[in-house]
Specification:
The protein is an alpha+beta fold. The protein has a single domain (about 5-90), classed as Alpha-Beta Plaits. It has two helices and five strands; from the N terminus they run E-H-E-E-H-E-E. A five-stranded mixed sheet has the order 4-1-3-2-5, covered by helices on one side. Strand 2 (about 35-40) and strand 3 form a beta hairpin. It is globular.
Amino acid sequence: MEKVRAHVIVEGRVQGVFFRAYTQDQAGPKKITGWVMNRHDGCVEAVFEGEKAAVKTLIEWCRTGPPHALVKNIEIRWEEYKGEFSSFSITY
């Protein structure tokens, strides 16, 4: 299976709704590695690495997010897979 890397920025009401924790919970079973963090501008930013189908599934989940989130836009930049992560973490 093809491995990919996606750099994602999610805009909307995505902070204060446990977006990062839910993203980490979604990534684990899909064997996606990388990170997720809140940005100072109110967005959530993440890097996902893993099997292409799993990464696409997680990106689709990000379009809605957890309960109480209101996603207005999602920006996806596909990058070269690097395999630099051993797990998925919340970055502060």
